[in-house]
Amino acid sequence: MSIFEYNGSALVAMVGKNCFAIASDRRLGVQLQTIATDFQKIYKIHDKLFIGLAGLATDAQTLYQRLVFRHKLYQLREERDMKPETFASLVSALLYEKRFGPYFCQPVIAGLGDEDKPFICTMDSIGAKELAKDFVVAGTASESLYGACESMFKPDMEAEELFETISQALLSSVDRDCLSGWGGHVYLVTPTEVTERILKGRMD
């Protein structure tokens, strides 16, 4: 069994018209045994920037703490929030720095950049970036997420339609993966507001 599959996870980020959504499942497991059903995998960096961390839960929490530290230093020095592209480069550099003993994490970064243009990207555990214009996925359920997102996604969705699409994609995908599930956690971000919703899913 891969160390990336030890805790189980499903993460997806999707872009809409001047908005984006990022969603994860809520299960924390040790292989096939469920430990918690309300585990947070998506973290807020600032109002228009979120990161989801799939992979080993302990490494995800450590990495998040280091990223918050780096972002706070940036805010103090620059007196502004970090742009999503800049943050993606920071995460990539931080992961590559530890390439000989990496954090066992697959980050999914989603944010609103200049002129509220949505930005999403994912990377592997040593920081090789993969940029996309529609959606990115990570975690043990990534194969079924690719299929669901591929069939459901359409460009320039309004916020509510985007929420519906990402929720359906997540819920139908985790049903096909025994290491993730127990509901979902969705953040919908527009230029003016951040909406957080909890999804109820199959509890078996």
Automatic annotation (TrEMBL):
Keywords: Cytoplasm, Nucleus, Proteasome
Biological-process GO terms, alphabetical: proteasome-mediated ubiquitin-dependent protein catabolic process
InterPro entries cross-referenced by the UniProt entry: Ntn_hydrolases_N (IPR029055), Proteasome_beta_3 (IPR033811), Proteasome_bsu_CS (IPR016050), Proteasome_sua/b (IPR001353), Proteasome_suB-type (IPR023333)
Cited Gene3D superfamilies: Glutamine Phosphoribosylpyrophosphate, subunit 1, domain 1 (3.60.20.10)
Compartments, as annotated in UniProt: Cytoplasm; Nucleus
Gene Ontology cellular component list: cytoplasm; nucleus; proteasome core complex, beta-subunit complex
Domain of life, source organism: Eukaryota
Location (main, coarse): cytoplasm
Complexes and interactors: Component of the proteasome complex.
UniProt family annotation: Belongs to the peptidase T1B family.
General function of this protein: Non-catalytic component of the proteasome, a multicatalytic proteinase complex which is characterized by its ability to cleave peptides with Arg, Phe, Tyr, Leu, and Glu adjacent to the leaving group at neutral or slightly basic pH. The proteasome has an ATP-dependent proteolytic activity. Component of the proteasome, a multicatalytic proteinase complex which is characterized by its ability to cleave peptides with Arg, Phe, Tyr, Leu, and Glu adjacent to the leaving group at neutral or slightly basic pH. The proteasome has an ATP-dependent proteolytic activity.
Entry protein name: Proteasome subunit beta
Lineage per the UniProt record: Eukaryota, Viridiplantae, Streptophyta, Embryophyta, Tracheophyta
